[in-house]
Amino acid sequence: MATPQAIRPTQINVPIETESVKASPMAKLKIRNLNFYYGSFQALHDIDMAIQPNKITAFIGPSGCGKSTFLRTMNRMNETVRNTKVEGELLLDDENLLTMDVTNVRRRVGMVFQKSNPFPKSIFDNVAYGLHVNGIRKKSVIEDAVQRSLEHAALWTEVKDTLNRPASALSGGQQQRLCIARALAVEPEVLLLDEPCSALDPIATLKIEELLFQIKNLTTIVIVTHNMQQAARLADSTGFFLLGKLIEFNDTRKIFQNPGKKETEDYVTGRFG
Amino acid sequence: MATSTLSQQDSRLAVHSLFKRARGGDEIAYLLTLASAVGILVIVGLIVVELWINSQPTVHRFGFSFLTGTRWDPNGDHFGALPFIYGTCVTSLLALLIAVPFGVAASIFLAEMAPPGISNVLTFLIELLAAVPSVIYGLIGIFVLVPFNRDYLVPVLTHLFGYLPIFKGDFYGVSFLSAGLVLSVMVVPFIVSVSREVLLAVPREQREASLALGTTKWETTWQIVIPNASTGIIGSIFLALARALGETMAVTMVIGNTPKITASLLSPGYSIAAVIANEFAEASGSLYVSSLIFLGLVLFGLTIVINALARIFVITTQRRGS
Q1: Closest by Cβ to A129, choosing from B203, B205, B213
Q2: Which of A123, A228, B182, B221 matches a 20 to 30 Å C-alpha distance to A139?
């Protein structure tokens, strides 16, 4: 049996097999031979992927399959965890993301988390925070950006009269949309979402799905989800992860209707997971 | 009687069920914990009542003017508490002024920047400071700090800031300044250990949310972590203040024990706790004793007022923050 090391060189040089990856010259994010370790435990094995601009890319897979870890390598959030190591290549617009200034990476690649985490500040200040720390001081610019971000996050009409109230007074779904607005305020090129709806009811979930669809033209969206229907509804491309490996990455329709791998078929038809 | 109206069988059943329930533990646990809680309150109440009863001669003689009187003359049977109140407040505030910046900065380093192993060792060492008996601090104050102040610190201070009233006058070593410095070292461990804990308790999600917007680690610490922990940090400062207000031994040894009110920190002074400790044994006459007891009540009231202010402050800032 060939070791991964033996396979790797051919994978780099030969055009990669799946359809979504074929268009890689115009990809927003290119990932090659990505390996990730928590101490001595290898959480990701030789991931290759190209993420297309202004599309929604979804990652599915059972718990612990590495999909969130993979997402968190894309804005280098994993670096905040001690004793981790990343190997391989991560390109953002053909720039090496792993050697860029980390604050610059995270400004360009925003993130929304599983648990909504507004700051203990007012609604307005939550959205304005990213602008403040990025050196924007002009009041009119900030006010415009806050309104625009809240509109994109489909929250503006609900909060426009209560911008100075604490964010904690909002409902769970509103808080998560506020977190999306906060991330959008710094105009990220890529928006990563780590199971953003897992704590929300179906109506709040639907609202977020709708808004993600609306903001596709502004940014590139990568979403990790436990909910296969959500991936099927939302995503242009879907990747299926299992035990730290990317089993299959293809157009969403292909993944759900005509999967190329046995494991993918078993998972999407509910035979395991 | 209630039991006489019950048939014998009923009463036996009632006793049986009472035992059964008591064996379940709920009632016993309730009574025991209630008794403990009430007992503590009763002790606090008794302290106040006893202090009040025993300070009656002074209350009758001087009334409110005891608090504002500046003359403390046991031989002339004239007692005023203001120099002691002043000394207690000045030394405590001076201690906080020095200890808060150092303590908060140290806790930020230990919680946010130092590797966990180093942080734990350093925190242990800092917490050891709180375990040093206060008489040791007093000795170090007399034999190390006072000479150091006289030879190095005060000449520099008077040279640079001699025009300020707080640094005017002669310096003999024992003073408000020396007492404040000793106190600041004594209260720093309270600030550090409590502040570090509350900083560490700030949820990971808050830090990640900020970092994900492209902030540096320091921006996240300063703008998100510290505001999240501010209530706890303020709590630690008031804990330190309560400690400083009541500290007796170390202050007595370095404050100079002179009941005078002067603006200069270089002058000797006196504090409430110090005068009680120093003069109680030789107090003769009921008015002298009752004046010292009344001073104890004043100190008690001072700590209660400050703690209440702290609580109000924390509640109002919390409401605004989240």
Answers
A1: B213
A2: B221
Q: Domain range spanning residue B242?
A: 81-321
Q: What is the pLDDT along chain B (322 residues), one digit of tens a residue?
A: 444 555 666 767 677 676 666 666 788 889 999 999 999 999 999 999 999 999 999 999 998 899 999 999 988 889 999 999 999 999 999 999 999 999 999 999 999 999 989 999 999 999 899 899 999 999 999 999 999 999 999 999 999 998 888 888 888 889 999 999 999 999 999 999 999 999 999 999 999 999 999 999 999 999 999 999 988 898 899 889 989 999 999 999 999 999 999 999 999 999 999 999 999 888 888 899 999 999 999 999 998 888 888 788 777 766 554 4
Considering the domain boundaries, does residue A180 fall inside one? yes
Do B25 and B159 share a structural domain? no
Phi, psi of A34 (to 5 degrees): -80, 125
Test mutation, A111, A117, A131, A190, chain B, max B CBs within 10 A: A117
Q: What's the CA gap between A92 and A29, in Å, rounded?
A: 5
Considering the domain boundaries, does residue B68 fall inside one? no
Contacts of A165 in chain B (CB under 8 A): none
Inter-chain residue contact A129 with B223, CB threshold 8 Å: yes
**Considering the domain boundaries, does residue B75 fall inside one?**
no
Structural domains of chain A, count: 1
Which CATH number is A141's domain given?
3.40.50.300
Would residue B159 count as lying in a domain? yes
Domain annotation covers residue B120: yes
**What ipTM score was computed for the predicted complex, to two decimals?**
0.85
> Which chain A residue's Cα is nearest to B226?
A120
In chain A, which residues have their Cβ closer than 8 Å to the Cβ of B223? 129, 133
Are B145 and B281 contained in the same domain? yes
